Amino acid sequence: MTIKVLLADDQALVRAGFRSLLARSRDIAVVGEAADGEEAVRLAASTGPDVVLMDIRMPGVDGIAATRRIVTEPPTSGSRVIILTTFDTDEHVFAALRAGASGFLTKDVEPADLRRAVAAVAAGDALLSPGVTRRVIEQFVRGRHLTAGAGQRLAVLTAREVEVARLVALGLSNDEIAERLVISPLTVKTHITRAIAKLDVRDRVQLVILAYESGLIRPGE
C-alpha cells in the first residue's frame, strides 16, 4: 500500500529536498505541499495523507497549532504528524509532541532514516527514536509540577500494563521490554495497545508524556 505524505514547510527548497528523497521509495507518494500551517490543515483535509511532515516555525498558523488541528479534527484525525526541526533541542518540539505529533526528525536526517521513519509512523509505531524522543520529553518535563489528574488516570491500568508503560517511557523497544519481562513481543504490543486505549491517549509518544507527568517515571531515572 502506498503511503501518502504531505509536506509542510515555509521554505520551498526544503520541501523540494524532502520530496526528492521520498520519491526514491516506490511505497511513498507526496500528495501535496504547504507553505504554512493553515494551508497544511486545508491540504490535509483534501488529500487525506497518512503522514504529515510538519515544520514547527511557519508564518501565520505555526506547526504546533496545525498539528493539533490535524490530529484532533475530522476528517484528518487519522493522519499522523512528524515534526521537522533544525535542532533536537528546539524548545518547541515538546509542545508539538504534546499537541499530538507522533515523533520528530531533524532536517539533517539521512535519506534512508527519513523513509524508514515515514513507514514506521504510517504503521502506527509512534516512537521513532526512543532515546532521542525520551530525552526531549524529559528535558521539558524536568522541573514541572506533577499533574494529579495524570496520576489518577493510571488507576485504570493493570499492574502489568503500568509496568509496560513505565518501560516504554524509559525508551525500551517492544523486543527489549519482552526480554526484560520474559514475555513475547506480541504480548508487549497488546499491553501497550490496551494501555493507550484505556488512557485515551493517541499513541506511544503521548503515553510517554503521561508517564512523566503522572510521576510514574522521573527525569534522570
Question: Key features?
Answer:
Arc Repressor Mutant, subunit A, 2 domains, 11 helices, transcription regulation, Rossmann fold, 221 residues, alpha/beta, DNA-binding, single chain
Question: Could you characterize the architecture of this molecule?
Answer:
The structure is a single chain. The protein has 2 domains: 3-125, Rossmann fold, CATH 3.40.50.2300; 146-213, Arc Repressor Mutant, subunit A (Orthogonal Bundle), CATH 1.10.10.10. By secondary structure, it is an alpha/beta fold. It has a 5-stranded parallel beta sheet, with helices on both faces. The radius of gyration is 17 Å and the shape is globular. It has helices spanning 12-22, 37-47, 63-72, 91-98, 111-122, 130-141, 148-153, 159-169, 174-181, 185-199, 204-213, and strands at 3-8, 28-34, 51-55, 80-85, 103-106. Helix 3 (63-72) links the parallel strand 3 (51-55) and strand 4. Helices cover 52% and strands 13% of the residues. The N and C termini lie far apart (40 Å).
